[in-house]
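Work Package 4 report. The design task specified in the project plan requires that, given a folded chain encoded as structure tokens, an amino acid be chosen for each position. We show below one input record used in the internal validation round.
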């Protein structure tokens, strides 16, 4: 499963620098695939969409920090546990039941974003 941030978030920001995929953004901030990854130029996402890696996308939440599911690997391939959840003082970084992924899928996502690193 990807990780999500609940509305219990206190906007402390502890999670953001811990994410190896730069999948965590402050509420209201736009996101893109290139942030914190090796992706550049025109890319084909894992769901087959062709886009510019640095194309900005609408914020997923305007009020609290949020996690971009397309970039979240639950820290698989980097750490033994999701680092956002490990540092969150209010335990609002939890499994997102709407996005279940196997370890192989999470590793494929990591490899997609960090090719050659």
């Amino acid at each position: 499963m990807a990780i999500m941030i609940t509305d219990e978030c206190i906007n402390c920001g502890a999670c953001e620098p811990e994410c190896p995929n730069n999948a965590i953004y402050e509420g209201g901030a736009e996101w893109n695939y290139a942030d914190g990854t090796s992706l550049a130029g025109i890319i084909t996402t894992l769901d087959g969409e062709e886009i510019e890696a640095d194309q900005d996308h609408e914020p997923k939440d305007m009020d609290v920090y949020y996690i971009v599911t397309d970039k979240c690997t639950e820290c698989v391939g980097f750490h033994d546990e999701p680092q956002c959840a490990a540092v969150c003082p209010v335990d609002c970084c939890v499994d997102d039941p709407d996005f279940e992924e196997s370890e192989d899928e999470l590793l494929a996502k990591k490899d997609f974003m960090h090719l050659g690193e």
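The longest helix spans residues 103-113. Validation will be extended to a larger panel in the next phase.
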